[in-house]
Amino acid sequence: xxxxxxxxxxxxxxxxxxxxxxxxxxxxxxxxxxxxxxxxxxxxxxxxxxxxxxxxxxxxxxxxxxxxxxxxxxxxxxxxxxxxxxxxxxxxxxxxxxxxxxxxxxxxxxxxxxxxxxxxxxxxxxxxxxxxxxxxxxxxxxxxxxxxxxxxxxxxxxxxxxxxxxxxxxxxxxxxxxxxxxxxxxxxxxxxxxxxxxxxxxxxxxxxxxxxxxxxxxxxxxxxxxxxxxxxxxxxxxxxxxxxxxxxxxxxxxxxxxxxxxxxxxxxxxxxxxx
Length: 275
Description:
Layout: H1 2-6, H2 17-23, H3 32-38, H4 40-69, E1 83-86, E2 167-169, H5 184-194, H6 199-204, E3 207-217, E4 223-228, H7 236-247, E5 255-257, E6 260-274
Parallel strand pairs: 2-6
Antiparallel strand pairs: 1-6, 3-4, 3-6, 5-6
């Protein structure tokens, strides 16, 4: 009987029940090898169905991903800070008119022969009042945007604190007041496009500062002798930014008196605000 079983077809199958009965006839059938061979078909079936389920789930996930990629996602822009540059009425920061008796009429001279001029005049009632007490003296050097110094003129105030006779102010009798090409709206647009609040101040938030810049509109409309008014902003980055933009300011329409172009000193107040 056993000889016939040895040559039967089922004997060639390792998991055959007949073969296992002969091999483990006088052995402990609770041994692991017998259990593995006895349950091999059942284990193989479970593995097959498990792999099939995984393939189906993976295919379903890929299908959903393809659908999601086809849907356009609308993400609103992220705004970290709002930069507001406001030009208040320049009359609020108008430099006091120099008494008429202190002026002398000088003959026109060449631009290159002009002596150094005072670019601004500190007043007792400066409309720009920063929170700190740090001030720029009349001999201070304005710093540009690189923080490495400035090429601006740093003239000292004379004893009388008067402007040279050839430089007029907004209070003088001018036929034409100097103005930015296109008017105040174009000036505001120029400042909005070129002024940038430094990233470190945007991260701080809650910054509300005013920077007053005094400058002279030359006879050809060039902006010269620009300086920050006394005190300026408590953040030097904003003072530097204001000076940087003033340096790239295009030529203005010059002021005129009696039909002739004249130098006029003006003040441009700028407010920086980060909400």
